[in-house]
Amino acid sequence: MAKPKVAFYWCASCGGCEETVVDLAEAILDVVAAVDIVFWPVALDFKRKDIEAMEDRSIAATFLNGAIRTSEQEEMAHLLRKKSAVLVAFGSCSHLGGIPGLANLFDRDHILKTVYLDAPSAVNPDKIFPAQRSRSNGNTLELPRFQSSVKTLDQVVEVDYYVPGCPPTPRILQKAVQTLLGTDLPPKGTVLAPDSALCEECARKDSKPEKLVIAEFKRPQDILADEQTCLLAQGLVCMGPATRAGCEALCVNGNMPCSGCCGPTSRVQDQGAKILSCLASLIESKEDAGIERAVDTIPDPVGTFYRYGLPGSMLRQKKLNGVQASK
Amino acid sequence: MRNRQLTRAPVSAGTFEPRIVAFFCNWCTYLAADLAGTSRMKHAPNVRVVRLMCSGRLDPQFVLDAFAQGADGVLIGGCHPGDCHYQEGNYKTLRRYHLLKRLLKQMGIEDDRCRLEWISAAEGDRVRSTINDMVERVRALGPLHFNVEREDHREEVTV
Amino acid sequence: MPEQKEQVEQENAIRVEAAPVRRKITIDPITRLEGHGKIDIFLDDAGEVERAYLQIPELRGFEEFVKGRPAEDMPQITSRICGVCPTAHHMAATKALDRLYKVDPPPAAKLIRELVYNTFMAEDHALHFYFLGGPDFVVGPDAPTAERNVLGVIAKVGIETGKKVIAFRRRLRELMGVVAGKAAHPVFGLPGGVAKRVTPEVQKQFQDAAADAIEFAKFTLQLFEDAVLKNSDYVNLILSDLYSHRTYYMGMVDQANHVNFYDGSIRVVTPQGKEWKKFEPEQYLDQIAEHVEPWSYIKFCYLKEIGWQGFKDGEKSGIYSVAPLARLNASDGMSTGLAQAAYEKFFAALGGRPVHHTLANHWARLVELLHACERMAQIAADPQLTDPHVRVLPTETPREGIGIIEAPRGTLIHHYQSDEKGLIQKANLIVATQNNAARIAMSVDKVARGLIHGGDVPEGVLNRVEMAFRAYDPCQGCATHSLPGSMPLLVQVRDLSGKVTALIRRDLDGSIYRE
User: Fold this and answer.
1) Same domain as A175, residue A292
2) CA A203 – CA C182 distance, rounded (Å)
3) Class of CATH domain C104-242+359-393
4) A301 and B102: CB-CB below 8 Å?
5) Is residue B156, in this structure, part of any structural domain at all?
6) Domains in chain A, number
7) Of the N and C termini of chain B, which has fewer Cβ atoms inside 10 Å?
8) A319 vs B149: CB contact, 8 Å cut-off?
9) In a 10 Å sphere around its CB, with 0-12 CB exposed, 13-18 middle and 19+ buried, how is residue A318 labelled?
10) In this predicted model, what pLDDT tens digit does every residue of C225-267 receive, in sequence order?
11) Contacts of B15 (CB under 8 A, 6+ apart)
12) Which of C6, C421, C486 has the highest number of chain B CBs within 10 A, making it the mutation to test binding with B?
């Protein structure tokens, strides 16, 4: 019997999710024995035309990582959805928008100017910009269109399952693959990781006090964090309470706070709002001035609470005055 | 749920009528709003009220969801500090509100669009004046249209 | 104005249609590298290559969206420029933070950083050889598509060796995780030090791993010798003019002009191998400039003083190269014994310094692999490594900082400006592969021209065109960290003789200029 076909593809991504597959280490040999990898640009030479030639839904599962930033990435998302029986959003970017999603705080035109004109090292007196169509030596060259915002995969096509993390740990991936190969498939739309908050599996759980009160928050460079005690209890902004477990709290083991890459549990729609609620309710002061001083110690709420999840959040993107006009 | 599609903003003719969502606590502000009603106080009709048992029940997600679904403004009403039916609930509201305002600012939502007022059960008149004042401030700002998708530019660039 | 715009657009469309449509061969996507890209090869009527373009279609916009972010988040945010070399960005960012806050880490912190960094260099170089570029040699450039990959390599070298490769990387990455939180996007970098100390137990693990790593590096060099250097076809390929360019070379060196991945000065040598410049990180803006083309999102670096002369070789062109071959060319040697011997063997075999053969990058990379493993061993043996004092708390008001490091794929520069609260106001990133971008473009073009004749393009030939970029181990995600919007457009229309018949420019503000 033919082995099931599996594909991996990357959109606006960094390649870290690809590394997770490679980090399966010896287990990758079992994977390779069990499935036929038909597309994986980082490691294999199959091309887009090979996918286009395949029959619809003939790929058993495609793991697609990276956010949707360009028209080409949108096309590939549609193509792979068509050719796949199961489409898995793999990693924070396709799940929630990821770090590239922070670009939703900015206007695309200003970004162009910053990169190609204002960058201190750019020398561009003719004000040349990369173009969707350009001519060179009589040749017509094309580049994909950059959309005006970053999108999650499920804002573009239907997604069957999500594997969270930036990147997902090899263990999360292995468990996800086991689940998908099993007979008892979870409901469509399930995030394939434990459905509890990170604090549950954190090694420092027992040092988290019953009642936590914070006069002011600390930034990591402000204190020498103790390597045993709950980081939130030490005043650091830790996303743990609003973040899904599954990663075994690796960042906390590295003595740095969780930054929220696995997204929220199933009971929360907007992770950033939830952690905002949690952290604010810990503030000691009861009156405006004291609360303001405490809030000052979180200098970048959106960047901290939505580092990985802005496109997938309720608001998705910053309102840009003057540009957002409907015709 | 997560796959809510963004929409195009409706083309409206004439004066802009803001849509304001209000979250009032059961024991104070909601009663005051009731009082304003039974006293036949006239105020702008632009507010949809959602009753919470306590302003401390206000999950910031409610505020964000209201904006995302088309609200032009969000008003929060609770008991005066010290008077909360559940002792400390409104202090939580106050703390969350301050941090939420910072977030909203970073997301491009103007200050006047989200407002917190302490209104006790007897202050029907304050409900009226707060609503009227807020509606005018939001009217001056214009529609928020947060649920409108950014246009995907084709060839043009506007700066 | 709108009418004029429309008229020009129509004329543009007509002009573009009327221009002769060349036969175009597209390789899409390019594979076995980090990042996205496609190669468009245009043929003239005789079936010869008019020009081949390596186009990078991806961008994300890091330099813009880090604005407003706390500076201490930069090591973790910028590591997402690349998940294959996150530690490079993490480290460059951390070094930039040291300068931003004007704080000097304690000795143990520097040792920990450099230990993790060399561990990373070792596993990343091994990844490239066995997974990305190596298959072209170990399995062969003309092997069937389904075999030209790491699985083909394992089939060729045997499962036991395959497991050795996998185990090598797993072990090193696990160790990195113990110190840095995780290998995939580490968390340990902070201004003034690192987040966590190294215990004696962990030190012992590193010592054991380093000893084994050195053996593995030697084994890999031997494998290269057996599989590649003893194969005359491959040697001819490496030495061929087709895969060679004479450019400047850049790399970081210590005071003795030995290769140093972690810290030092930046040295540039001429195509003849003479030192041309040696500068400190703070001076990078005087030395390096970026050029823009409309057909790719990557910016092409060149030496500012010499200037941009187009995609050309030679001493008069400002184009230079980075990464393993360049680092070896730009240095006088390696600071560790076994690597130094390998360095000497390398240059003796290839006719002395500098070596211009791009494919020699694969060999140079293995010399660096050996050096990284030896550095691991040296640092792991240092008793100061386990000193618990690993952080100095910053006290100065942050302002500006530049951090430079040698990423596996070349010189990497992070430059930040912040406000007094330490929120980023401006960021400039010159990312490894950008330094190579011009030379890579030239390599792809040259190889395509050399191999494609009479319109005949068998599949193996296309892979040989791809081999032209693969040797550089490019990281396009890194190179195109920036995000453009749309489309101030410059249209140059040429007739068949190459004469420019129209120049149409549309600026950011919408105004159209026609010449």
Assistant:
1) no
2) 16
3) mainly alpha
4) yes
5) no
6) 3
7) N
8) no
9) buried
10) 999 999 999 999 999 999 999 999 999 999 999 999 999 999 9
11) B139
12) C486
Residue B150: predicted pLDDT: 73
* CB within 8 Å: B159 and C9: no
Question: What is the nearest CA distance from C446 to chain A, expressed in angstroms?
Answer: 16
Same domain, residue pair A9 and A157:
yes
The answer to whether the bond into A167 is cis (omega within 30° of 0) is: yes
Tell how far CA A6 is from the center of its chain.
22
Distance CA C312, CA C304 (A): 15
- Are the Cβ atoms of A250 and C83 closer than 8 angstroms? no
Determine the structural domain holding residue B109 and report its residue range: 20-141
ipTM beyond cut 0.90 = yes
Per-residue pLDDT reduced to its tens digit, A209-256 = 889 999 999 999 999 999 999 999 999 999 999 999 999 999 999 999
Domain that includes residue A119, residue range = 110-147
Domain count, chain B: 1
Q: Residues 6 or more apart from C139 whose CB is under 8 A from it?
A: C147, C148, C149, C152, C153, C155, C156
Q: Does residue B152 sit within a domain?
A: no
Match 């600026």 to its residue by tokens. C507
Contact C214, C370 (CB under 8 A): yes
What pLDDT was estimated at residue B12? 58
HSE-up (13 A, CA, CB side) for residue A109: 21
Nearest to C149 among A44, A136, A259 (CB): A44
Cα separations (Å) of C393 from A301, C192, C342, C390? Answer: 23, 6, 42, 10
Query: Is pLDDT at C15 greater than 60 in this prediction?
Result: no
> What are the angstrom distances between the C-alpha of B100 and each of A276, B97, B111, B148, C325?
7, 5, 11, 22, 53
Residue C394's pLDDT band, with cuts at 50, 70 and 90, is very high
In a 13 Å sphere around the CA of C331, the CA atoms on its Cβ side amount to 30
Pairing of strands C193-194, C265-269: unpaired
Q: Is the pLDDT of residue C360 over 60?
A: yes
Gap from A212 CA to chain B (nearest CA, Å)? 14
Instruction: Check residue A325 and give its pLDDT.
Output: 32
Say if A88 falls within a structural domain: yes
Q: Is residue B13 part of a domain?
A: no
Residue that wins the pLDDT comparison between C396 and A147 = C396
Q: What are the beta bridge partners of residue C320?
A: C248
Residues of chain C with Cβ-Cβ distance to A113 below 8 Å are 508
Residues A164 and A15 in one domain: yes
Integer Cα distance of A295 and A280 in angstroms: 8
Q: Collect all residues of chain A within an 8 Å Cβ-Cβ radius of residue C286.
A: none
Q: Does the distance separating the beta carbons of C291 and A116 come in below 8 Å?
A: no
Q: Please classify residue A239 by burial: count the beta carbons closer than 10 Å to its beta carbon, then call 0-12 exposed, 13-18 middle and 19+ buried.
A: buried
In a domain, B96, yes or no: yes
B 73-132 → C contacts, CB under 8 A: 106
- Are C51 and A140 in contact (CB < 8 Å)? no
**How high is the pLDDT of residue C498?**
57
Nearest to A111 among C64, C299, C507 (CB): C64
To test the contact with chain A by mutation, choose from B96, B141, B147 the residue with the greatest count of A C-beta atoms within 10 A, namely: B96
What is the mean pLDDT of the segment spanning C193-208? 98
Please report residues of B whose CB lies closer than 8 A to that of A105: 106-107
- Who's near C19: CB < 8 A, 6+ residues apart? A135, A138, A140, C493
**Chain B residue with the nearest C-alpha to that of C507:** B157
C-alpha distances out from residue C325 to A156, C23, C122, C245, C328, Å: 43, 35, 16, 12, 5
> What count of other Cβ atoms lies within 10 Å of the Cβ of residue B10?
10
Question: Phi then psi for B98, rounded to 5 degrees?
Answer: -60, -45
Q: Which of B149, B156, B157 to mutate to test the interface with A (most CBs of A within 10 A)?
A: B149
Across the A/B interface, how many CB contacts are shorter than 8 Å? 131
